[in-house]
Specification:
Layout (H helix, E strand, L loop, with lengths): L5 E2 L13 E2 L11 H10 L13 H17 L18 H20 L3 H22 E2 L4 E2 L26 H13 L1 E2 L2 E2 L13 E3 H13 L3 H12 L11 E3 L5 E2 L5 H14 L3 H6 L3
Antiparallel strand pairs: 1-2, 3-4, 5-6, 7-8, 8-9
Helix pairs in contact: 1-2, 1-3, 2-3, 3-4, 6-7, 6-8, 7-8
Pfam families: Glyco_hydro_15 (PF00723)
Protein name: Glucoamylase
InterPro entries: 6-hairpin_glycosidase_sf (IPR008928), 6hp_glycosidase-like_sf (IPR012341), GH15-like (IPR011613)
């Protein structure tokens, strides 16, 4: 199917909010976080003993090729996970995903008892981390920022602890969670960022970001607030129990693609994180 983006002037769009686009220009963009996503998706095969088919040397060899790309492109400017059209920068999230690729490969190599490869990937992981920290922390803002140039707050920074790049109790991470909640929340929900993008100033929150925020609050020990955010998000579901990509900042109407897998995965993941254990729910009488 051709993905070349074009306008459909005959279509008014949702609530007359055209223009309607057919295709997706993102097909032409570079997003360097993808290498890390591939390795994170496959890594569990080496650690979960319940799986009928475990990861082996053949898969590890394939993943090392992906890891080499992650290392090579860790600091190449890209469009970032938000598929920005206007400019390329070295995005913190993309670089952290490259760090995660090398980190998981080192862990997999340890499981496979390959000490030389463990050290190889640890060296690359550490090199990437040191360079990220050289630009990603802003003393001026008192938080991590999204890129090496014109850095700003971005909801993807909420994932730094989830990915293992920093500890949840790292004061820099806690400060970043606080700053994002203070600066990016609109009418109860989180935007991706507050600055102008290719389409002007954002007018909607991005649903997955609010789930990320709930997860981050839980990681830093504020579970009651996390559950409040989660409950609020559940109230935004439509009659079929589905969530869209965005929520209007003023009306709280569901906007964007619906159903949105990203949002629904966020719901499931956050529900699992915030659920009581069987022991808490039943055996301890709470």
């Amino acid at each position: 199917t051709p993905l070349e983006e074009r306008f459909a002037p005959a279509l008014a769009g949702f609530s007359g909010m055209g223009p309607v686009r057919v295709g997706n220009q993102a097909a032409e963009q570079i997003q360097n976080d993808g290498y890390g996503h591939v390795i994170l998706a496959a890594a569990q095969m080496f650690f979960d003993s319940r799986l009928p088919h475990r990861g082996d040397m053949a898969l590890f060899n394939l993943l090392e090729g992906v890891g080499a790309k992650a290392f090579d492109y860790a600091f190449e400017p890209d469009a970032g996970l938000w598929e920005l059209r206007g400019k390329k920068r070295v995005h913190t999230f993309s670089a952290v995903m490259s760090w995660a690729a090398c980190d998981r490969l080192a862990r997999i190599a340890r499981v496979l008892q390959l000490p030389d490869r463990v050290q190889f990937w640890l060296d690359r992981r550490n090199e990437i981390r040191a360079r990220i920290l050289s630009f990603a922390w802003s003393e001026k803002l008192g938080s991590f920022v999204d890129a090496d140039v014109d850095g700003q707050l971005d909801a993807s920074l909420l994932l730094l602890a989830e990915l293992g790049f920093v500890r949840p109790d790292d004061p820099r991470y806690v400060a970043t969670v606080d700053a994002i909640g203070r600066e990016l929340k609109r009418n109860g929900y989180l935007m991706r960022y507050a600055g102008e993008d290719d389409f002007g100033l954002p007018e909607t929150s991005f649903t997955i970001c609010s789930f990320w925020y709930a997860g981050a609050l839980d990681l830093i020990g504020r579970r009651d607030e996390a559950r409040e955010m989660f409950t609020s998000l559940l109230e935004r579901r439509n009659e079929a129990g589905l969530l869209s990509e965005d929520i209007d900042n003023q009306t709280l109407e569901l906007w964007g693609n619906i159903p949105q897998t990203y949002s629904m995965v966020g719901l499931i993941d956050t529900a699992m994180r915030l659920s009581k254990t069987w022991e808490e729910a039943f055996w301890r009488g709470s």
